[in-house]
Amino acid sequence: MELGGSATLVLAAGILCLALLWEWKRQQQSRKFPPGPIPLPLLGNALQLSRGDLFTSLMALRDEYGPVFTVLLGLRRVVVLCGHEAVKEALVDHAEEFSGRGGMPSLDRIFHGYGVILANGERWRQLRQFSVTTLRNLGMGKRTLEERIAEEARCLVEEIRKTKGSPFDPSLPVSHAVANVISSIAFGDRFDYQDQTFLSLLDVIQSLFLELTSPWTQLYEMFPGIMRFLPGPHNRILKHVDVLHNFVTERVQRNQKTLDPGCPRDYIDAFLIKMEEEKQNPLSEFHTKNLVLSVVHLFFGGTEMVSSTLRYGFLLLMKYPEVQERVHQEIDGVIGQNRSPAAEDRSRMPYTHAVLHEIQRFSNIIPLGIPHAVIRDTQFQGYMLPKGTDVFCVLGSALRDPRHFSDPERFNPGNFLDENGGFKKNHAFVAFSSGKRVCLGEGLARMELFLVFTSVLQHFTLQSPVDPQEIDLAPKASGFWNIPPEYRVCALPR
User: Which domains does the chain have, with CATH numbers?
Assistant: First the structure.
């Protein structure tokens, strides 16, 4: 017993010494960083951050420590920026310094820094420039982006018409329509709404989105060294990404067999042509791994972000039928019933334009943004952030900044209207982020939202099976992303 007791004392003393050493190092390092809540050894600030609503937890810390503060996610130090001014100062005024992609352990273990969204350095610069140029060029080809979106909007309207006014869940048809737009860009064609392979892919994308928002994944973000060895739902992310990876790989192989270098059909063709052009360049980032993972990024992000916004938008119109009625009036006055909506109509429809912006602001789909990192030692608001510091530019805090939006917790299209009813820009609107890492598909997403939204409302009045006052707008899940609640809608022909 004496020997056992001595061993226990030695072990306890060792743990205490490690904890004291860790705390001393933390205090030494924290002199460079903004203030924040006192972390616990090894746990960091995990106990002060709700895994069910990380955004609200960070907003509570902002109220205590100000718009710039530091938290420890386990052993990972993160600087958090809240409010329009702090986010703008970082992403716009110091755009180059904050242009790095921060760590996301749950995804980094899968992608390892490959693909256009998660890449850094020269890899990111090459892939970003290529992707922006390719999306633009595809929009100027035989079938413009607007034509692709308009075709899909018409297919969605016909799919909704089949419900004959009965209550239905809009998640699948909306996701299918949006995914088909990305498919036409990435793969050169669309899929039938009954295609079982594509239906399975959409299910995988929605499941992946849900898993990335789960408390288990948030635990992985804080304690990757431990969580990677533990069983749990967070490991399903690997299986979901494998399905997408295999699907894209098969499509790449199919394109390789029928490639015509003089006539690229889609993003994959353009990438394959670029690979051939740079095959003698040892520093080129154009290889199959970056191709497959870039398409996975575009397919996943381009499907779920836009479809989630539309689903939230239709729910909000049922909650506020007076808003829907004004949109109907504007559609009838500008577009009418004898032609399909066109992108050029947007400039003549200020109220609808304002409603779409307010839907994006209120739904706050990516409240924390995708993490950034400083690419060099950076002075920011009196603090020195060492190279590689992870930074959360909390987009949701800008979208709900009371200095720029009146009553920001309330849905109000007036946030984007001037006294004459014209559309009014608001610099705090950062739904697509800003700076060098601004969403590369922003133009495509804006066009999709407008054309699909107006096409549906041109043909239908959306009614809720329950009283509008009973509609709950709270997200189904909230973490790094907000997932719209499940609901049913009746689409009544107009």
Answer: 51-493 (1.10.630.10)
